[in-house]
Amino acid sequence: MSVRSGARGYILRAACIVAGGALVLTGCTKNSESNAPTVAKVQVNKVDSLASQLPDKVKQAGKLVVGVNLPYSPNEFKDPSTGKIVGFDVDLMDAVAATLGIKADYQQADFEKIIPSIQAGTYDLGMSSFTDNTDREKSVDFVDYFSAGSQWAQQVGKQIDPNNACGKKVAVERTTVQETDELPAKSKACTDAGKPKIDIVAFDDQAAAANALVLGQVDAFSADSPVTAYAVKQNKGKIETDGAIFSSAPYGWPIAKGSPLGPVLQAAVQHLMDDGDYLKICQNWGVEQGAITKSVTNGAKG
């Protein structure tokens, strides 16, 4: 499951905040929008055979209208210096659009309103780190393009076992699946075995959780795998991934049920996977651990 409460949930804001009055953080991490990295765009060419398959509505408009909720670094967020929407998801969608000879028109929206707006025809698709799950597949179709799960991080050289963190302080972003499901279950296993509980330290955003780890105020943090990878990349030499990705599920672009746009998007992203551009985009953003080699429609696990 992705971090957004079993879907995509909540945000990655700037660091250096007071989280629940518990910790005043100093010495900010780089894991924030205010330190947006400069990432080169991967240039791709139009593929006429794919572009010709676009639905007439999209061909005539010359664009894909994409509903997006911000911020969620490194997937989609605003570059503070330019105000432009950037991120891994953005670069991939831009590459898909270029392959189809059109543009992507990003429209900001509340996360919970994106799927209803797709059903109403306001947006052609959504792009906000959506987890493709069976409940959502009842309402929309998904073109899957990435695999995300939970992953821990620790300070460099300090070994913390994600499956035996009894008595340790572990940071999470508030209201995420890591806070509501994963860590409570692991903590209960500790106490059931007569061991100390896990001290779950919840922050309003993941940047603050990463900062707490950098400063040694917690022993580890758990987050969505691309978020963890991004935090590690932004804080090289200070924190590192801890253990393998677990509870993985696909990220997908939601589209209207039965839409002819689905097969075209799937073919376009598969083209990028086959020619290596997809992997380059993943590597540019440090999220290559979640890269997949085959795009499918409605690939949720039951």
UniProtKB/TrEMBL annotation:
Transmembrane segments: none annotated. This is ABC transporter substrate-binding protein. Signal peptide: none annotated. Belongs to the bacterial solute-binding protein 3 family. InterPro entries: SBP_3_CS, Solute-binding_3/MltF_N. It is found in: Cell envelope. Keywords: Signal. Residues 63-289 form the Solute-binding protein family 3/N-terminal domain.
